[in-house]
TrEMBL record, chain A:
Keywords for this protein: ATP-binding, Nucleotide-binding
GO-annotated molecular function: ATP binding; ATP hydrolysis activity
Keyword ATP-binding: yes
The protein's name: CbbX
Organism: Salinisphaera orenii MK-B5
NCBIfam families reported for this sequence: cbbX_cfxQ (TIGR02880)
Keyword Nucleotide-binding on entry: yes
AAA+ ATPase domain boundaries: 78-217
Automatic annotation (TrEMBL), chain C:
Protein name as catalogued: Ribulose bisphosphate carboxylase small subunit
HAMAP family: RuBisCO_S_bact
Keyword tags: Calvin cycle, Carbon dioxide fixation
GO MF terms, alphabetically ordered: ribulose-bisphosphate carboxylase activity
Function in brief: RuBisCO catalyzes two reactions: the carboxylation of D-ribulose 1,5-bisphosphate, the primary event in carbon dioxide fixation, as well as the oxidative fragmentation of the pentose substrate. Both reactions occur simultaneously and in competition at the same active site. Although the small subunit is not catalytic it is essential for maximal activity.
Subunit structure: Heterohexadecamer of 8 large and 8 small subunits.
Family in the record: Belongs to the RuBisCO small chain family.
Presence of the UniProt keyword Lyase in the record: no
Native source species: Salinisphaera orenii MK-B5
Further remarks about this protein from its record: The basic functional RuBisCO is composed of a large chain homodimer in a 'head-to-tail' conformation. In form I RuBisCO this homodimer is arranged in a barrel-like tetramer with the small subunits forming a tetrameric 'cap' on each end of the 'barrel'.
Chain ranges of the Ribulose bisphosphate carboxylase small subunit domain: 4-103
GO annotation, biological process: reductive pentose-phosphate cycle
Amino acid sequence: MSVADKPDETRADEKTLDADAKVDLDAVFEESRIQEVFDQLDHDLVGLKPVKTRIREIAALLLVDHVRRQFDLASDSPTLHMCFTGNPGTGKTTVAERMADILHKLDYIREGHLVSVTRDDLVGRYIGHTAPKTKEVIKRAMGGVLFIDEAYYLYRPENERDYGQESIEILLQVMENNRDDLVVILAGYKDRMDRFFESNPGFRSRIAHHIDFPDYRADELESIGELMMNEENYHFSDDARQAFSEYIERRMRQPHFANARSIRNALDRMRLRQAKRLFEARGSITKSDLITIQADDVRASRVFDEPLDDEAGA
Amino acid sequence: MAQTIQNDKRYEAGVIPYKKMGYWEPDYQPIDTDIIALFRITPQPGVDPEEAAAAVAGESSTATWTVVWTDRLTACEKYRAKAYRVDQVPGNEEQYFAYIAYDIQLFEPGSIANLTASIIGNVFGFKAVKALRLEDMRIPTAYMTTYKGPPTGIVVERERLDKFGRPLLGATTKPKLGLSGRNYGRVVYEALKGGLDFVKDDENINSQPFMHWRDRFLYVMEAVNKATAATGEVKGHYLNVTAATMEEMYERAEFAKELGSCIIMIDLVIGYTAIQSMSNWARKNDMILHLHRAGHSTYTRQKNHGVSFRVISKWMRMAGVDHIHAGTVVGKLEGDPNQIAGFYDVLREPHNEQNLEHGVFFDQDWAGLNKCMPVASGGIHAGQMHQLLHYLGEDTILQFGGGTIGHPDGIQAGATANRVALEAMIMARNEGRDYMAEGPDILQKAAKDCKPLQHALDTWKDITFDYTSTDTPDFVPSTTTSV
Amino acid sequence: MRITQGTFSFLPDLTDEQIKRQVKYCLDNGWAVSLEYTDDPHPRNTYWEMYGQPMFDLRDPAGLMMDLEECRKTYPKHYIRVTAFDSTHQWETPRLSFIVNRPPEEPGFRLKRQEQEGRKVRYTIDSYASDQPEGQRY
C-alpha cells in the first residue's frame, strides 16, 4: 500500500528522518521478508536468469523508495505495469503470480492476488457490454495484479467497430489514474506484442518493465521435468532419465513445442503408461514400483517413432 | 448394570425404589429423537443421588409414589423417562447433574405448556430432593420443527426497519408509573427524534387509572409518526398489550395494528399458552413481538432451584417471540458474562455447540427457526458502549432508559449521545481497532463533535454495578463478577 | 434536517478514507458491496436505484471507490448508499448499509394527518422534495 493510502494513524507513526540519519538497508531487506520469496523463486523456477534479475531490481527499487520516503524525499510511487513476452510455457503466468506476492510483501499493492483474464473476459458482444465487463474485471483486480494473457487480441484493426478498442481505452485510463490500486501485466508472444505496441503507443508508454522470457534450454527442461515429477512423488529410473533426456531433444525440434507446458503434458502421458504397465503386469507391487517411471514408459512416446521433422504429438 | 426389577415382581402392589422401577438406566443411549433434560439435583441427606435422579425421571414422566397395575395396560417401558447419567457438580458435594431422556411421544407437538407441565410439573415440589433446577434441555429436531419460532426474526426485523450493522437502540419510558398519555407521548417523541429506534412500555404499563391503554396507544403513535417524519427513519414503540384475558389482549393488539404500529409487547407473566397465541397473532399480522421477562428472576436466579434462564430462552424462541430481555452483563441486573453469552447464543445462533463455560450443556440445532433478538436493559449508559458491544455483539437491542431520559440536557440529547457513541464504536470496530481497550478514547473523540455525548460521559463516568452474580457457570475455575 | 437512515448518519459525513475502511471490513467478511442512489429518501422506499450490479469477488475497496466517484459525478445531489450483502445461510440479507452522499439541502418530510373516528389518525409521510418530478428534486 502506498503511504498516501494508509490510514491516518499509520501515517502519523512514520516520522521523517533527519538528513544525516542512517538507515540499515540490510535490516529493511530482512524486515520485508523478501528473501523468502527469492529463495522460493530460485527453488521453484528453473533458469529464467534475466527474469529473476529484473525481479530483484524491482524489489531493490521499491525498498529504496521506501527508505527515501522515510527521509521525506518526494517522488511519485514508481509505475510498475509490465509486459511479459515469450513463447508458451516459459513461465509467464507463474512469474506473474509470484510478482503479485512480491509486490504485496513490499507493500506496493494491498492484497497480492492475481486476476488472470483474456480478451473474452474483457470484451463484450454487443454495444454497451464491454465497459461494464472490463470494469468488473478491473474492480476485482484492484489491490492486486491484473494479468492479461495474449493482450494483443484486444486490438483487431481489421474490424473498425471492434469492441476491443473500448476495453483498451478503459484499461489505459485505469493504468494511469489508479497506479496505486493495481498493477497490469500484459503477456504474449514477443513479435505480436511488439506489433500491438506499435499500434497502441499509449500502452507502451504506460508500461515500465518489458521482461522477455527466453525459451528453456534442454538441460533446464530436464530439471523442470524432475521438479514436476518430484512434486507428484514420482521419479525416473536411471534408464528412464536417459530416455527422458533424449525425448526432450527430439521434442524440442518438433513443431508446437511449448516449453514447460509440453514437458508437463509428456509427464502426464508417462504416468498413464506407467499405470497401464503396472496394471497389466498384475501380481504384487511395491511402493518403489508405484513411484518409478521406467525407460519404457518414456520410450513408448510417438516422439521416438517418427522422423524428427514430422508433425508429432508428445 | 440396570437394576430394574423384572416382570412379575415389578408390578406387585407396594412401594419400590424408583431406581428399581426402570427410571435409572445407566446403559441407556439416548436416541436422536429423545428430549433430554439436565437437572441440578440436591438430594435430601441420606438419599442416593441415583435414586434421586430416578425419582425426578419418574415424577416428570409416568410414575407415582406407589406401584400401579394400570402401568401394565401400556407400553410403559417406552413412556418412562430414563435417568442415564449422574455427575457430581464440580466443587460442590451436595449437588449432582442428572441427565434424563424422554421419549418424544411423551409430548404434545408445538405446546410449551405440555412440555413444561411434564418437565417442571410436580417434580419440583418432590420431597426426596431438597432443591431442583432445570439447567438445560436438548430439543430434538423432530420436536423442534413442531414449533413455529419467532414470527419475524432478526433478519426480517432488520429488513423491515431498514437498520443494519449495529445494535438497535431503545429506552423504556420513565417514570414507570403515573404519566398521562399526553406526557408519555412526549417522552417517546423526544427519545425517537433524538436518535433511538424504539421506545418501550414498561412491563407494568397496561391500563391503569392514570393512563388507559387506548389513550396511550393514540399519543404514542402520534409521537412515533412525528419522529419518523423528523428523521426519515423507521421508528417504533413496543405497545404493551398485556391484559387480564386473551380477549382483551387481542383487542389491544388489533388496535395497535390499526394505528400502524410495527411492534407490540407482552409480559412473560401472561403464560406460555398466551405467549404462543400472541405469537400466532403476530405472525398473521406482520407484527414484531417483544417479550418482557417480567417475573423470571423468581425462578431463574438462584443456582440450586428453579429453571435456568437458558432454558427459558429456548422455550421462548420455540414459542415464538422476536425480542426477549436477556441481560446486560454490565448493567444493574443479575448477569454473569459467561452465562449471558450462553443465553445470547441460544437465542441467536442457528446451531449451538456444547459450551460448558457458557453453561450450554448440549449441542442444539434450531432446525431453521428464526433468530430471536436479545434485549439488554437495566442500568446501562453510553460510557459502557465498548463493553456492551464486546459482550453482547451486534444483534441486540440496547435499552438505555435512565441513560436517555436522565440526561442533563434532556431526552433528545440523551438519545443522541447514545446513538453517536454506538455509531462511533461500530465504526472503530469495523476499522479493526481494539475498541475494547481504546473504548474510552473512541468515545471521547466522538464527543468532540457531539456535546450531548460529552455531557453523558461526564455525568455517568463512574457508574458501574459491581456485584457478584449468583447464577454463574460451574465449569470455570473461579466465580466471575459483573463488570 | 438530516436524514438519519444508514449505520453512520449520526457521525460527521464519512471521508473517502473512512468509506474505504468500512468497505474493506465488508469485503474481509466475504460480503458483496453495492451502490444505490435515490432522490426519494422516504423511509419505506426500500428499492433505491442500483448503480450497476452488486460487486461480488472484490478484494479491495478501490473497485467500489471507482464506481462511487462516477456515481457522485452523475448524481451529485442524490442520496447514495453503500450496502453490503451477506449470502451466508440464515443471513442472506444486508449486513451493513451507510450513506456516502447526500444533497446539500435536505428539506425533510411532511407529516399528513387524516382524522378518523374515535380520535384515530391515519398518518402519511411525504418527502417535500418528491413534489418535484424525479431528477429535479435536489
